[in-house]
Amino acid sequence: MKLTALAAAIGIAATSTAAVAEPVNLTLSGGNPGGLWSLLGAGIDRATKVDDADSVVTYQATGGGFANIGLLGANRTDLGLVHDAEAKIALQGGEPFQAPIENMRAIGYMYNWAPMHFFLERAVAEEYSIDSLDDIATSGAPLRIGINRSGNITSNVALFMLEAVGVTEDSLNAAGGQFVRAGANEQADLIQDGRLDMITNGIFINHSSFRAVNENSDVLLLSVPAEVIASTNEAFGTGTMVIPDGSYPNQPGDVETVTLGALLVTTDAMDDATAGSLASSLLNNIDEVRAVHGAMKALSPELLATPSVLEFHPAAAEVYKAAGLIK
Fold first, then answer.
1. In this structure, is residue 248 part of a structural domain?
2. What CATH number is attached to the domain comprising 83?
3. What angle do CA 234, 240, 243 make, to 5 degrees?
4. Residue 8 pLDDT class (50, 70, 90 cuts)
5. Residue 253: pLDDT above 60?
């Protein structure tokens, strides 16, 4: 790969003239085939090829971030895409991990705009006077609430946020409701068929599953109390984002909520030349990643270099320091 921003700390002088290193040959563990993470894998591969046509980043479909952390922890993959919330759980040794995973190092922050959405059938919202997440517990409504499948971080976050306002499995059951485990597209089908009253997920604004809900169901986007956002961010290392007024047909103005982000992660076993070269290619050829999906247009050098729950690999940090993005 050609290197343009590696600092002397990793043994290569940073100059405006590209130096030549060996091409990289890496495996990237992502998520479902055909999903956004597979597209990101293709974009990362293309970014490395701009600098060296012989470089290869091979995408490997997995069960998602928790699975990728397990592979990284066992040094069975070179790179993994991981949600910030998943990384924080792993650092703490929380479920599904048996012990803290401490060998992860960030290469770059890929996005931080996957906000948690809570859609409720408008007829139910009007009948029980619910317009905010914290209205549910006191409403007595027998809600059937869609929660993503176990192992998907959005289910952890949704359950935490609901519990923060007093909504638990026991309280739902007592009111005649229940939690229903289903993926994003399944939730859209279930609420359309009248088998769910409410759906939850953390995906990009106007994701296809949400468009399907809006086209086929009459739903209201619930607001989220500020204290719930704050406690969730503290627990999961997530961020705060506003879903702008008008993003969906029925929403009470701007809606501030929790947002998930995703990191490109390696381990402390990756050599400096490879890690620095990869970070340099992402930074210098960022348009290759932006081009994979409309939702990635907002990716910026500043975001790529934003510190998160994980430390940067030292060589990646040197690239961002040389570019004036971090101190």
1. yes
2. 3.40.190.10
3. 150
4. very low
5. yes
